[in-house]
Protein: Bifunctional enzyme IspD/IspF
Organism: Parasphingorhabdus halotolerans
Amino acid sequence: MSDSSNSANATHAVVLAAGSGSRSGLSRPKQFERVRGKPIVRHSVDSFLSHAGIDKLWVVIGAGQEELANEALSGCSAYYLVIGGDTRQQSVRNTLNAIAQSGGAQSILIHDAARPFLSRNIIDSLLAVLKTEAGAMPVLPAVDTMISTDGQRLGQTLDREKLRRVQTPQAFDFEKLLAAHDIWPEDITATDDAQIFQAAGHDIHLIEGDENLAKYTFPSDFERTPMQTQIRTGMGFDVHQLVAGEELWLGGMKIDHVKGLSGHSDADVLLHALTDALLGAIGAGDIGDHFPPTDAKWQGAASEQFVKYATELIAGKGGTINNVDMTLICEAPKIKPHREAIRANIATVLDIALDQVSVKATTTERLGFAGREEGIAAQAIATISLEKI
Ligand code: CTP
Ligand code: MG
């Protein structure tokens, strides 16, 4: 928001959240229900508050909804509460009065809280149009065949080319909208402000709407909230020393070899790298943070439990593993004969399909510690999908 809030040149935004949401089937007013991690009303409040073209924000709530509103908007910077009325139209009326009493405004954007996903683009477009027009609103084409009906039978099939679906915010010259509301007959209920504005003789300029601005009305709207998926990647790397007299565990499989890997747990270098990759994808530190080598309870522990723990952390964040890819770096033993078994085991531990798991191996051409068979290194990468809220 900008800070020229009290001037009559200012652009005010109004979020209408005074309804009861009776068609939603929810136990509390729908505007306070959480979708994508925030109360519905909070989404458009945040959109307006973060837009520099909006000077002052009014949030309209129902009488008795103060506590719900304070909770939903806690931590929000400057906004002004208004108590709405019995109808949407009355709620707007109360707000126009409050704005007029506080010194008026140049322009006003009136928005349904029930349309939470308000983009910067829509606000930008409306503000741009208001520079030359007195009224503007977003609309979308009618895609289905449209009919009229008495509720039971087909009336007329309408020409959908001439029809549009109307959204909010609707943007107006403030004084003209106030005057239009003044002359609108109180006994006729208007479901939006554009019809009131037009009845007073003004044009409304149409801008392209946004499917994401869809209104939450019925229970099914709450079930099919679109999720945004975020792809995450994590990498892991580990080395353990090869010594005589130890068992060799790679990818959760015991492998016959003259030497084994030494370490605090079963020293499964491949699963350790994999665990770090999984933890890395959700920014959850590394294996040592969760299973400190200083803790005696991990002595000789099967490393599969580290992997399972990391997958549970991912699942707890609503994430799913897309794929993992690993490389073992060693001279001996030869990995190829064990590769498919290791792959299948890791797919089972992660509970994903075999083609989501890749295990590869390479030597270092006899160079370095791996080349001298003093140790085995492993690297891993994991890709996961997180539902972004
Ligand atoms: N609204 C309002 N004051 C009212 C009625 C509605 O501020 N007296 C607001 C709603 O909170 C909503 C927007 O107007 O953000 C659009 O109304 P609608 O989708 O019909 O919401 P509700 O009236 O709450 O729902 P319902 O009609 O199902 O009861
Ligand atoms: Mg309603």
Residues 19 surround magnesium ion (ligand 2) (CB under 6 Å).
